[in-house]
Amino acid sequence: MSFKTILSYFNFTREQRAGIFFLFGIIIALQLVYFFVDFSVPIKEDPEKQKWLSLQYEMDSFKSHDKNKEQKIYLFNPNFITDYKGYKLGMSVAEIDRLLEFRKTNQFVNSADEFQKVTKISDSLLNVISPLFKFPDWVNNKKEKKQFEKFPSKAFAKNEKIIQKDINQATKEDLIKIYGIGEAISLRILKQKEVLGGFVSMDQMSDVWGLSPEVIENLNSHFKISSLPEFKKIDVNNASLKELSQFYYFRYALAKEIITYRSMNGNFKNVEDLTKIKGFPVEKAKTIALYLDFN
Predict the structure, then answer these.
(1) CATH no. for residue 248?
(2) Residue 70 placed within a domain
(3) Is residue 49 within 8 Å of 55, Cβ to Cβ?
(4) Other C-beta atoms lying within 10 Å of the C-beta of residue 212
(5) pLDDT by residue (tens digit) across 36-54?
(6) Phi and psi dihedrals of 111, rounded to 5?
């Protein structure tokens, strides 16, 4: 293709050249407008939104302040650790279950070492959580008792006659005289007696929370059941669900089972019939029988 042939393509009339220049002018003008003109739409500030944003800012500042604030540490009795509490402390499910199974036997751990023996937690975890343990006063005073017992004459102790008093006639002052019992535990024993209507066996001392085997032994040496207290027995064959569930040894679930069993099998003749019911505390049957009327 020759140069003349190529040049022939650029031969325009006056009107065509004017149109081409006009088109170039429009393109250049649009480019200038695009680069130099701000097409963004102004955002209207909502006063309510601004208030919420400022409030949120204040809340965030409070949260950050609380995080930096030193948290208060509360001591606790490890005998009553729940599943959630144990999880927060770093205990495994198996370790928590061992403690709960041990507590079902109505026993207590009285030191960090006993806690580790029962739960089998690691030494490292014990070192972290044991400073948070808080045991009852009688546990902390146990060592003082052992030191004190070295001084009295054993011969004198053997010859000393202890006059046993009826536990149902004991006052708060009488109970406090027993080593290991303070004002709180003495009131707890009296409250238990009030709930039951009176104690019928010294074995019921094990039902009072906070009494160690040593303290119960001291109670048994100073108190006894001279005679059964006077109280209204529960007519187990006619009592309503509400009346049965209010009895200390039954609670609602067992009371419901008793009502169901009674409606299906007839009246109970003795406490042995009650022991056939699922969930009945068989080990306390003799004690429970003294509170019931089977007529």
Answers:
(1) 1.10.150
(2) no
(3) no
(4) 16
(5) 877 666 666 666 666 666 7
(6) -160, 165
Q: Check whether residue 258 and residue 213 sit in a common domain.
A: no
Q: Which amino acid is at 200?
A: V
Contact 208/216 with Cβ under 8 angstroms? no
Asked whether residue 83 falls in the same domain as residue 148, the answer is: no
Are 295 and 235 in contact by the 8 Å Cβ rule? The answer is yes
Look up the pTM and report it.
Answer: 0.45
CA distances from 50 to 40, 43, 59 (A): 21, 13, 14
Examine residue 244 and state whether it is found in any structural domain, yes or no: yes
- What's the residue count for the chain? 295
Residue 13 lies in a domain: no
Asked, for residue 200, whether it belongs to a domain, the answer is yes
Please name the residue that has the structure tokens 């429970």: 288
Question: For residue 104, what are the domain limits?
Answer: 78-135
pLDDT digits (tens, 9 = 90+) for 186-240: 999 999 999 999 999 999 999 998 889 999 999 999 999 999 898 899 999 999 9
Q: Sort strands 234-235 and 292-293 into parallel, antiparallel or unpaired.
A: parallel
